[in-house]
Amino acid sequence: xxxxxxxxxxxxxxxxxxxxxxxxxxxxxxxxxxxxxxxxxxxxxxxxxxxxxxxxxxxxxxxxxxxxx
Length: 69
Hints:
- By secondary structure, the protein is of the alpha+beta class.
- Helix content is 35%, strand content 43%.
- It has helices at 2-16, 31-39; strands at residues 21-27, 43-54, 57-67.
- The protein has a three-stranded antiparallel sheet, covered by helices on one side.
- The longest helix is centred in the first third of the chain and has 15 residues, at 2-16.
- The protein starts with a helix and ends with a strand.
């Protein structure tokens, strides 16, 4: 879908500009985005506890990375 194409475009831009890695953060509850990033080869490298405000308290952020080759 569109989200896949957008992330792939950013990955290609990173590759063309000789960047070594892409990093991002995503809400732990955003399972659709996490599945997308997993499909595109991102790996979880960290966790930011209580990073996002939420309606029932705070929510953790997963920190993901993708090596550009």
